[in-house]
Design goal:
This protein has about 170 residues and is α/β, with parallel strands linked by helices. It is built from six helices and ten strands. Helix content is about 30%, strand content about 25%.
Length: about 170
């Protein structure tokens, strides 16, 4: 319920907060609706940013002191997909659009939730695309990409997202 209110209230609040503050909050909140393969309780959930960081300090502020179950969040920034394979969530910046196929190839099959804002991201094999439609953050989700990574999504997340399938290369 909170996710629905958060996503749909984005339009009303978009004028008072930046688009990337809402996208940062989406990265944090989506973790509550995703089940990863088992990990030790004390292992932090890493949110990695690959490429140019559009969030500034917003993502760090939003996750500071927050938990998903017994696991705390950490934020790390990377220049290559190989460095980010230990993260639970990897946001692939639009600066990496030209390398997207290679990045998704490196992360494919690993327990990593890939997220981006690149047009056509889910159709290319990414898991979640954050889009701005009429000043509101909307999610597209590719459940097949998540399943390949051993991720399971709550029915609530799926019902609030546009489900997208991949386009075969």
């Amino acid at each position: 319920m909170w996710l629905a209110l958060f996503l749909h209230s984005g339009a009303a609040q978009a004028e008072s907060a930046s688009e990337y503050e809402f996208k940062a909050a989406s990265l944090y909140k989506v973790a509550s609706f995703v089940q990863w393969p088992p990990a030790p309780d004390n292992t932090p959930i890493c949110i990695g940013i690959l490429g140019k960081d559009p969030f500034g300090k917003a993502l760090d502020r939003i996750v500071q002191g927050k938990l998903a179950g017994n696991r705390r969040f950490i934020v790390e920034r990377f220049r290559s997909a190989e460095e980010a394979t230990h993260c639970g969530i990897v946001f692939i910046s639009s600066s990496e659009q030209m390398k997207l196929r290679d990045i998704l190839g490196v992360l494919r099959g690993k327990p990593v939730l890939t997220v981006s804002e690149v047009p056509g991201f889910c159709q290319q094999g990414g898991t979640i695309n954050l889009k701005v439609v009429d000043s509101t953050i909307r999610m597209e989700i590719n459940p097949a990409a998540g399943a390949r990574s051993g991720l399971r999504f709550s029915s609530k997340l799926l019902s609030l997202s546009k489900v997208v399938t991949e386009v075969s290369p």
